[in-house]
Each structure stands twice: as structure tokens, then as C-alpha cells.
Amino acid sequence: MRRFLTFLAVAVIAIIPALVLRLMGWRPGPVIDTVVFGIAVLAAGFMLSWGAEAAEKRISQGLILALVALVTVLPEYAVDMYYAYQAGKAPDSNYVHYAAANMTGANRLLVGLAWPLMGILHWLRTRQRSIQMASVNVVEIGFLLVASLYAFVIVLKNRIDVFDSAVLVLLFGAYLWMTGRMPKADEALTQDDEPGPAAALSSLSPARQWVWMAGLTFVAAAVILASAEPFAESIVASGRVLGIDEFLLIQWLAPLASESPAVVIAVLFVLSGRAEGGLTTMISDKINQWTLLVGMLPLAMSVGFGGLTALPLDARQHEEFFLTAAQSLFGVALLLRLRFSLLSALALALLFAVQLVIAFIFRTEPSRAIASLTILAWVYLVLAALVFVPGAPGAWRAVVGLRAKAAKSRLDAAAKPGSGAAEAARET
């Protein structure tokens, strides 16, 4: 418990400067503001991760799962919803571009950086060249595939509208419902202590655990909501002061701060010998970002606008969204065989590095950047097609096996003494 309290004290100390600036209304300068409020968002994100980590053993119902899924990505949502809301208030402003930039950056960071990190760390730790996934993981892969395919509908329309919101939010709800009904990949793993600092909470009574989880979530959520606006605005101002394209800062800096806590928890899973759990966590985060986050953008923009409206995609945003969709589809294709190899990790990381290099080289030439990244998107799609064809049969076998396992579980449950089926069998 002492270790957990030490980490908590560090997080609280990191949060205090941002709260002081927020309450006083004082802004030292864009760069300092970005650092102070960014650190606060990062620290609060860790607190959210600890609360969610402790809750995993006790939460299994659909509604609470939805709340946990929303809370764990609150840092990213808060910043992006702020940009989308401001875009609704000023539809002709750059906030429209900022909302899309933050969303595409967060999604591409997960697949291009977080996923490869899981595979590379697993290889460094065990020298095993792949992370083997369980048959139940076909659920995550299936929903991510559907979301990635639907993303191309948005690309063709050149906008994200309220209809897309309905589809994506329903898809996210269906994902939570399905995962809540599926058997766990390995029940033995759920008996182990969690790898993060919040593992100490498991030694407390259930009532005290709930108090801690609620307290961590409430405090962290309050800090994130208080810091979202100054953090989002300071990034834009910092770009102007430093002469850096604010679009690129919003696309990469904000998601790095907001995604880091969840990635660190996943890394701890890998280092504790549970690489499948770490990778599955990152896949689930990708589903959250690719469905719920994207779907909420038009809603937040509509609130700011005062009526129903859509988030338009200009030439640059169209390319960014197309590239994100193509990368997602390639990532799904690499998972179809229910294993994530070191080669797959390196391929995703290399292609992500190419994205960054192109963005840096052509940072002052938007038209050339758009053309180059569009070519890269087609490269992703070609690679996805090459991988998808041989990988699809393995995924289908996993689906069939999972259905058989679920049916067997229902039959076993019905055959237990005291069940209706068992009583009927005895009567006959």
C-alpha cells in the first residue's frame, strides 16, 4: 500500500500547479501553460488508470463497463470534445481542423506506436517472436474490422455527421454487450494481482476498494475537465509562439499526454508476463477511440452550434482520415491469425515512422504532404489485402470455435443441479 500511496502523492503534486493556475486565472505563457496543464492531464490519467485497474476484478455488467470505458479515455475525450465544441461555435475557424487532427493522431498513435511497443517488449523480455491471442479476442478484432470498414464510408462522404454518430455509438455499445457475454480468455489470469500500483488496493475490503476507486475517478475527472480548455488552447498558442504548425502539435502532443497512462498500464502487463492482456487493452482502447470518440465529435460540435451539424473534412482532413482508416485496416489484418508477431510490430512501427518523417519534411508544403500521405494510405491498403486473404480462414475458425465454446458453456450451466434443464432431465 505504501508504494501505491507514494505514486498517488507524486500524481497529486504534479496536479497542484495546474489547479493553482486555473483557480487564479493566471497564465505564465503558452509553453509553460502547455507543460503545466499537460502534466496535470497526464497525472490525472494515471489516477484514472489506477481506478479502472482496481475495478476490473469487480466490474462485469454492461452499464458499468461502458462507464469504465468512457472514464479511462477521458483525457483524450476532454481535449477533443473541447475542440469540437469550439468548432461548432465557430464553424469557419481552425477548431474544425483541430478536432479532426486530435482524433486521427490518437488513433494512429495507438496502432503505430502502442501496438508495436507491446510486441517489441514481449520479444525483448521472452525472445518469443509473437504474442499469441485467445479465441475470445476474435470479438475485439471483429468489431475493430467493422469500425475500420465503416470509416471508409466517412471518407467517401467527406464529413462525420450525426448518422455516423448513431452508427458508431451503437457499434461501441454492441461491443460492450458482446464482450460482457463472452467467456474470459483465461480465468487463471484474473486471479493474479494487477501489475500496476493499484494492485495494493486488492488487499482492502470490497467497500474500501469502492471508496478508493470512486475517489480516484472523481478527483481525476475533475482535474481533467478543469485542465482540458487551458491545455487545448495553450497547445495552439505554443505552436504560434514557437513557429511550429499547431496542427501537428495538436495531432501528436495532446494524444501523447492523454494516452500515456493507458499505455504504461499495458506495458506493465507485458513486463509481468501477460503480453496478451497488454495487447488486448490497447486493441480495446483503439475500438473506443475509433467508435465512441469519432461518433461523439459531431454531437459535441452540434452542441456548440446550437443545432444538428456535421464535422466537415477538407483536403487535409480527408487525407488524414483516409490514412487513419487504412492503417486501422492493416492493423486488423495483422491480427486475423490471432497472433501479433514481431514482424507485424516492426512493420507498423516503420510505417508510422514514415508518416512522421513525411509530416516533418513537408510541414510547410501541405499539398505535397497530402499527396505523399495519400500514397502511404494506399500502401497500407495493399498490404492489408495481401495479409487479409491468408489470415481470414484462421479468424473464421476462431469464430466457429468461440461459438461452440459458448454453446458448451450454456449447456454445462443448464446441466448443473438445481437448474431448470437438470430438473427436467430427472423428471423424464
TrEMBL record:
Show the stretches that span the lipid bilayer.
Answer: 32-51, 63-85, 105-124, 136-156, 162-178, 210-228, 248-271, 292-315, 345-363, 369-389
Query: Which keywords fit this entry according to its UniProt record?
Result: Membrane, Transmembrane, Transmembrane helix
State the Gene Ontology BP annotations: transmembrane transport
Where would you say this protein principally sits, based on its record? Answer: membrane
- Pfam family example for this protein? Na_Ca_ex
Sodium/calcium exchanger membrane region domain spans which residues? 35-178, 214-360
Membrane disposition: Multi-pass membrane protein
Q: Name one GO cellular component term.
A: membrane
**InterPro entries tied to this protein:** NaCa_Exmemb, NCX_ion-bd_dom_sf
Q: List where in the cell it is found.
A: Membrane
Q: What is this protein called?
A: Sodium:proton exchanger
Q: Name its species.
A: Piscinibacter koreensis
